[in-house]
């Protein structure tokens, strides 16, 4: 199969797509739990239940969106047109997510459910095609890894900008009303997100067209479950997102209550961790040129468990400086695996085709997206229950028991999920050498490898 190198412009455009997707991811990972409890006034347990309920919607919407990408092809390809058509609805959904009408408590809860579920559906419509997109940009594993390095780098830039600036913009624009401030700040971010998604559409193209078996959902699911390497990645996705989302979801609580900081300090603390992740993206790309990407994946996540335990026992309440240093180191190590993971999904899809003789692409990527959101939903649900269990009270001085619980939720508990992820990865075997040998045998079919979709249509 002939492969084409990606230009820098196309890699930047691909990364811009993830910047847009991360407008909502940043909101859900870093702001949503704190926003719902401390600004909108919902109870932690109710917020956790909302996050879990949304995952039942995802259980239907994610596979269905994956099937749509398999069955529907426009003149731009199978994935790219969704960036054009759904960009504005996606941005509007983010704006509604942070719109907080002055209703009774029950009406507020209903509003939260409606807007959060709508945002979830719009996110699915954009994210499933986006995470599938790397498989049709190029078939070269090195180029995929490089493009995903750009993607993760720009995603982290988006996270830093949003986490660092939104609390400041909310204070500036809110005129004393945090709810109004967050609405305007996130409204601005959603507008930028729409532009980034359209830029991704304009600067990238689908150049590899795989043969897609348009089988019923049941048959595709059976084929997918025979793909043992995809199952490994699915388990890793749930575990990793559980740890990542729990840590991100309590970072504001940890800085404000455990370390005694302000909301601006919480934004700075969280942003510093995300900035370390940006450096991690670059380091990961450099390391994987010289060291096995699968080994990096395994051992970096096991190290996260060790560093998390160290942070729990070393940092005392109010010790902001030490907490910041350890949090930055932890955040750097956590994301060393990220570019590897997103490249591995495309390779696992190819592996499934080589193993079964049938290609299941849309459902595979849709399933990974569901696993990611399932991990985030479970993290939100568990965090809400744990905040309630430890006796957290919004906007008040916390008990020693509550402070210990918040510290555990930032360190030991998510660290355990990451360490388990590392051990699960010992079941993963698709190294670059393994993949190239599989490709050389002709096990991966492709149509029209030397032409773009536009040229074919």
* Main sheet record: none
Mean pLDDT over all positions = 86
| Helix-strand category | mainly alpha
Assign a percent range to the helix content. over 70%
Helical stretch tally? 18
Task: List how many beta strands DSSP finds.
Answer: 0
| Rg for CA atoms | 21 Å
Beta-strand portion reads under 5%
Query: Which stretches are poorly predicted, pLDDT < 50 over at least 5 residues?
Result: 446-457
Order of helices and strands: HHHHHHHHHHHHHHHHHH
Give the overall silhouette. globular
Summarize this structure as a short list of keywords or feature phrases:
single chain, 457 residues, 18 helices, globular, disordered C terminus, MFS_trans_sf
Write a structural description:
- This protein has 457 residues and is mainly alpha-helical.
- Helix content is 78%, strand content 0%.
- It has 18 helices and no strands.
- It has helices spanning 8-39, 44-71, 80-85, 87-97, 105-137, 141-173, 178-203, 217-225, 228-258, 263-287, 293-314, 320-334, 338-356, 362-389, 400-410, 412-424, 432-440, 453-456.
- Helix 4 (87-97) packs antiparallel against helix 7, helix 6 packs antiparallel against helix 10 and helix 9 packs antiparallel against helix 16.
- The protein is globular.
- The protein starts with 7 loop residues before the first helix and ends with a helix.
Write a brief structural summary:
By secondary structure, the chain is mainly α.
What's the SSE blueprint?
Layout: H1 8-39, H2 44-71, H3 80-85, H4 87-97, H5 105-137, H6 141-173, H7 178-203, H8 217-225, H9 228-258, H10 263-287, H11 293-314, H12 320-334, H13 338-356, H14 362-389, H15 400-410, H16 412-424, H17 432-440, H18 453-456
Helix pairs in contact: 1-5, 1-6, 1-7, 1-9, 2-5, 2-14, 4-5, 4-7, 5-13, 5-14, 6-7, 6-10, 6-13, 9-10, 9-13, 9-14, 9-15, 9-16, 10-12, 11-12, 11-16, 14-15, 15-16
């Amino acid at each position: 199969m002939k492969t084409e190198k990606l230009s820098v412009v196309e890699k930047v455009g691909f990364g811009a797509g993830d910047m847009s997707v991360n407008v909502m991811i940043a909101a859900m990972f870093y702001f949503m739990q704190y926003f719902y409890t401390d600004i909108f006034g919902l109870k932690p347990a109710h917020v956790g239940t909302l996050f879990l309920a949304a995952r039942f919607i995802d259980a239907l919407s994610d596979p269905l969106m994956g099937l749509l990408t398999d069955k529907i092809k426009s003149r731009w390809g199978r994935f790219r047109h969704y960036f054009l058509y759904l960009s504005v609805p996606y941005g509007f959904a983010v704006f509604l997510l942070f719109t907080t009408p002055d209703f009774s408590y029950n009406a507020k809860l209903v509003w939260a459910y409606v807007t959060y579920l709508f945002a979830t559906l719009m996110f699915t419509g954009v994210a499933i095609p986006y995470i599938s997109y790397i498989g049709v940009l190029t078939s070269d594993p090195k180029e995929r890894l490089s493009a995903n390095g750009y993607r993760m780098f720009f995603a982290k830039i988006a996270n830093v900008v949003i986490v660092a600036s939104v609390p400041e913009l909310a204070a500036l624009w809110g005129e004393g009303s945090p709810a109004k401030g967050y609405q305007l700040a996130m409204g601005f971010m959603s507008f930028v997100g729409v532009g980034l998604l359209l830029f991704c559409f304009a600067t990238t193209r689908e150049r590899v067209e795989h043969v897609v078996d348009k089988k019923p959902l049941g048959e595709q699911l059976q084929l997918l479950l025979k793909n043992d390497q995809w199952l490994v990645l699915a388990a890793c996705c749930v575990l990793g997102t559980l740890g990542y989302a729990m840590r991100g979801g309590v970072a504001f609580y940890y800085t404000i209550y455990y370390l005694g900081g302000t909301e601006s300090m919480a934004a700075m603390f969280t942003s510093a961790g995300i900035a370390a992740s940006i450096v991690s993206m670059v380091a990961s790309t450099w390391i994987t040129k010289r060291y096995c990407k699968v080994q990096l994946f395994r051992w970096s996540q096991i190290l996260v468990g060790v560093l998390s335990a160290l942070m729990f026992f070393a940092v005392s309440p109010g010790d902001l400086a030490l907490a910041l240093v350890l949090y930055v180191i932890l955040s750097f190590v956590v994301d060393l695996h990220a570019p590897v993971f997103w490249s591995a999904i495309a390779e696992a899809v190819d592996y499934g085709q080589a193993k079964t003789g049938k290609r299941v692409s849309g459902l595979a990527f849709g399933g990974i997206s569901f696993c990611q959101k399932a991990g985030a939903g479970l993290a939100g649900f568990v965090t809400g229950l744990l905040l309630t269990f430890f006796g957290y009270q919004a906007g008040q001085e916390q008990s020693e028991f509550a402070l210990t619980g918040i510290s555990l939720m930032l360190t030991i508990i998510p660290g355990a999920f990451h360490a388990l992820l590392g051990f699960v990865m010992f079941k993963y075997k698709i190294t670059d050498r393994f993949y190239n040998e599989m490709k050389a045998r002709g096990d991966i079919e492709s149509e029209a490898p030397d032409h773009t979709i536009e040229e074919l249509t």
